[in-house]
Amino acid sequence: MGSTAVTEAPAAVTLAGVSKVYGRGTAAVRALDQVSLTAAPGEFTCLVGASGCGKSTLLSLVAGLEAPTAGQVSVGGRVALMFQEPALFPWLTAAGNVELALRARGAGKAERRAKAAGLLEAVRLGGFGRKRPHELSGGMRQRVALARALAQDADVLLMDEPFGALDAITRDLLHDELGRICAGRDLAVLFVTHDVREAVRLGDRVILLGSRPGRVIGEYPVPIGRPRRIESAPVAELAGAITARLREEASGHGR
Amino acid sequence: MADDTLPGLDALGAGAPAPRGAGEAARRAWSWLWPKLAALAIACAAWELVHLSGWKKYVLPGPGVTLSNLWQQAHAGLLWHAVGTTLERAVLGYALALLTGVAAGLAVSWIRPLRAAVGSLITSMLTMPSLAWLPFAIILFGTTTQAILFVIVMAAAPSVASGLIAGVDHTPPLMVRAATMMGLRRLSLHRHLILPASLPAFVAGLRQAWAFAWHALMAGELLVIIANRPSIGVLLSSYQDQADMPGTIAIMIVILVIGIAADAAFGAASRAIRRRWGLA
What we know:
The structure holds 2 protein chains of 2 kinds. By secondary structure, chain A is an alpha/beta fold. Chain A has 7 helices and 9 strands. Chain B is mostly helical. Helices cover 79% and strands 0% of the residues of chain B. Chain B has helices spanning 10-13, 22-53, 63-75, 77-110, 112-125, 134-141, 145-169, 173-182, 186-223, 232-241, 245-277. Chain A binds chain B through residues 63, 65, 79-81, 83, 85, 87, 89-91, 100-101, 103-105, 121, 124-127, 131-140, 143, 148, 152, 169-170, 173, and chain B through 1, 3-5, 7-15, 172, 174-175, 177-178, 180-184, 188, 192-193, 196-197, 199, 276-279.
């Protein structure tokens, strides 16, 4: 397409040769070893690995909560983080929790109220703004947490097994919602999970992490059109291939 | 999808509030009240039995004589005057303890070196009997109201401080991470997360502080007798001097009732907060 086409979009997240070691000397634990990856704005990247692959360490580094031992982490823009637990403030209503994130960004009162209502609407909790977290179900709380993360107006959304504690049906519903919400925004999403099907269902790309030390052992683009169903044949097929690779790694032949 | 449509199966997880009517409220009040009335009746019956058995019969009055003594005192001005003085001291002393305790608690939880230095001291202050402060207070302030207030503050402030410190310490780390990611720092972090998160433990500390303050006040009033200032302690001590047992027990009942009423108020506040926080 001539000279005009190829201008690489600036990456939202770049990790270059990142290592993280906890402790010193003989007690040192290498959590991440030479991890390099990039995520572009609007791209949904899933990170999959068994426990001990340093997934949570990787997110902490991107979130700026910890510093790498070696290598470079660069993030273009603000970062929001969502955990497996909703971590909502129980003394605030659902709307209050979302409004607090807006307030931390310096939004005025009227703006906070309007935006929080809009975000709760976006996660399909329109009528539930005045409920407190303990009055909501697990899935609804996680929706509020998503609205709160979106309220931070971030460029990068980090999700640490956000649906890990939910039942399969609720999780499936939230997959739909998340896909719909992310489609309308220029968010770079890094989604950590140990559920391979969930990763294939959601991601534009699935990155496989090996364990002890955590490192990238494979990268799979997901060439399946949307909307996807978690039980559909193409999703199951790719998930099967990735799971086979993970099993190989776990049994020690992959090294 | 309409505004208030429940999002799919999620709705099944959200509990519906139980319907409540006037009849329901009355039933709940009665089920709360009757065990207390029954306990009171049993206590009076046991008392009456001891009285009828003739044990210490010249000095131990029965409930009838005692309650009529209380009734008479309630119709004379002196008891109410004394209760007024005592409650005034209680409120003033508790307020001072609250200020001191909050200031100390905040300083210790915010300033790390101070924490290392005096953190354990506050806990050990909790074991100090308030009576042991009295001689010190009397030498320092003389037999004055200040001496009594000083003892209340020394007894109650450590509870206030340690409740606050415990609350700050037990703020869930995941919530701190969430708040930090939102961009809340230092003062705003304290205002929006740490102080509200520590409220349940703080109120538990306030309740314990009230019990300590009330103990200290009674001890102080019994030993620091100020002329022409009738108080509950002065009444108790003068009935003791007159060997007036019905009067003594009547005053003890007044002390018990005030203590229970205040504790119930703290209990209600604590329950309201726990319910709002979703803890109960």
